[in-house]
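Could you show me just one protein sequence together with its fold in token form as a worked example?
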Amino acid sequence: MEGTAPHDSVSYPSLLMWHWYFLAWAAGLWGARYFIPSLAALGSIVFFYVLTRHLARKLPEQSLSSPKKNVTQNVARLCILFVSFVLGLQIATATLAQRPFDISQPDSLPQFILNKKYVQVTGVVREVQTSPDRRIKFILTDASYTKDNVTTSITGDVVWTWANRKDAWNKQQKAANALKNGQEESSSAKQALITANPAIARLRPMVGETVSIRAKLLPIVGFRNKSSWNSGDYWQNRGVFWRIWTWGDKAIPTRSGDVSLPTLWREKMRFNVSQQLEDLVHTDAIEKLSSVLGATALGDALDVIPALLFGDKYNFPSKRYAQLSHASLSHSFALSGMHLAIVALSISFLFTLCVRRASVYELISRPKLFALGILPAAAVYVWIGGGSPSLVRAFIMLCCWCILLLFNRPRVFMDGLFWALAFMTIVNPLIVFDLRLHLSGLAIVAMIIALPMLTVVKSYLLPNKTTRFQRIKRAAFDTFFLSIAIQLVLLPVTVWNFNELSLWNVLNIIWLPLLGMFIMPILLFGLVAACMSMALPALVPFSETLFAIAATPVATLFAFLDDMDKAGFLTPVIMNRPHWVEIFAWYGCIISALVWWKIEGREIIPEIYNSLSDGAPTWETKLFTAAGLPLVGGDIEQRETEPPLMMRSIDEPNRNSGKSVSPSVRKENCNISRWASRMAFSCFILLLFIPDALHAYRIEHRTRLNVLDVGQGQSLLLTFPNNKRMLIDGGGFASRSFDVGRAIVVPCITRQHDSSLQWVMSTHPDTDHLRGLFHPVGYADVKGYFATDAIPRGWNKKQLRQALKRAGLKKSILKAGDVLTISEDLELEVLHPPKNSELEGNNKSLVLRLVKHNGTERRGLALLTGDIELKGIQELMDSKADLSAEVLILPHHGSASSYSPAFYDAVSPKVAVASCGFLNKFKFPSQDVINELHRKGIQTLVTAEKGEVELYLE
């Protein structure tokens, strides 16, 4: 009928009582690491439970007849909620294994660890993980080390990182050929080949194998910065406390033990596909495609095919992965529930084609038949994917959905999610800290929220026609709508963890259908052909052709992203990392909005629709009134004969005793619930802005110095009372695959703050001070870059030049005598190096002194010394400059080469800070330096022991 909405309500499923218990249980598990946020979550769970219980009283016959029994029942349930929370807290705390060493007392570790001596480490491979840029991680359990012919068991598991595996494979193969020819080989190569199964000599170590390797055994500590992700906690959740690292063919493991037949088959499949892809690069067809799409794009496309088939990212270039992340497409190249859904839909399509007899569906319904067919195919795909945690989680969810479907249970989608999460948290309580579970679970929650809305929105915007064009348009709209919904629900989690926001989510509309309907099916057919080619070599050209066809659209995508990157369109948007209160408030807003919509939202769509369709002059007023109803809007008139939908648990039967309910009682209950939901929504919105408001309007009269934990390196963040900030150095490692600036520095500078930096300074161009500046300079809001006249070399020079060009900055050279005015009473003095200094390297580092003055009196707050050593210190002291300061950042990380008691006397600090890595190979800080500072009564803080150091300069 004209003037009425096609759909006037959005229906959402209610929560069962055991769902509430599970939520309290999950909040308790979360409290093992984050106790205060878990208490806030428990309070919200109790509030929403009480609110929905009140809503469930729309037919309150039970409560009217026996109010005491109803109150007792609700109190008992609240007690069970609290018990579930405490039980979860206790179990997670007990499950969280404690470190077998004390970080604050590294001297308690065995001497061979302190001295970084090589030992023989042996363990059973529990899990294999591949990373971009040719890195593989093997998690070893039941591990032990052998030193001086004495074997000692290791408490906790060990993660072994093997970089550049291809060199090691080549060496093993050469050793095999040499032994065949009777040539002499090194003892290590002989041992590797004798103990390894000859049939798998070139295959990777597999799950179940026992490996032994000579390496340095070190504890895992991680980067301990406030409100930032810590790899030490990540590995602790998995029971891993130790690490070893090897490079290429420097150390080849000895391998023994039998692996399961499925594991061996899968590894042979992966190896055969990799070999065919390597051979494919040199074919004429690929060379012709390379001339069109570009050799780099096509080569990278072939390298990522194992990632799409097996989850193997070994050959995945990290640069390409970062590009995909900026384009919001990286999720499609990591095996997850989306890929499992593609397999499920493909199987459903095959069933539709193969099973056409109506008599079959008389015996079993179509959905149940599909469920029986999907599960075996999904299990095979999980095996092909190596049983990655993401695939296993998705498979458990799929199993729960299919089982509920087979047993005719309603609300399969949401109930199956709860069953899957309950099963996973019971088996492994610490999985609640797994980011991949957060992303996959919240994505499904987003779809549960969005699908009813999508149905209504499509009924308004898209005509219900069956033409091919309309079906394509509706499918594209579905993809776009769900992508936006998922991105909104995941927003605070992704921003907190990844610190960036991609604006190219729209690319998923084209890419995901292309991946699901074309690329993945062809790759799966190619995989089948490649497996058959091991017995029938004549099929090799056919499987290679399929791989080439599938790689073509991937290469086209990469070429397109290269063009976008060159044009500057893929520049990431660095976001303000939220406080946990803001994350909590964000999801509180979503839940309270849904509760409010459940109560009175059914009347809003007709109101807006009728206002728009009638063309009334006051439709704007009606629209804003409708949008503002959760906060200040008036009551929506409820029909007495049709009360609003209530969130009543299914486990509470609709007890209709035949007693009449007073309309005034019903209206009073509805009004209370309506205003409670509005108040909850309003409070969560206010809570969403409170942390930023407090931060923005908090008047800070002190300068804050944060010495970031960047491992073996140095990075200083100064925040001044006028809210201007200065970043001095950024840390850095020799590895190009780990960007300290992106992983550590930028997340630290955006903690409840935007990415603005008034000054970025490089004290000198050493890697451990410079490389962490590339990402902040290139992508943060930097106003000026300052350094000495020293020029970086090689790769560092190129990266710095690109970062400055991207930011539109030029290097400003500082020298002794320069002064930067920060505010009316704060200045930064440049004390070193002088303009004509003949010193080089570390001794030419910038030395900066932060000074507070009142016009006549000057007081040093902090002395920042870079990596100057004794020659630089002597030149600095000969300049007769005032060096006094309350805080001293020790020169050269506190090394013995900068040990100078006279210098400490000249500075006379209250606190000295050394920035260095835990058990670094240089043994910084020097014990002589520490002893001298203690003798002088100077408090000494070391980032290797304390993590990030935060000081307030009065």
Notes: Residues 663-697 form the longest helix (35 residues). Residues 17-96+580-647+662-696 form one domain.
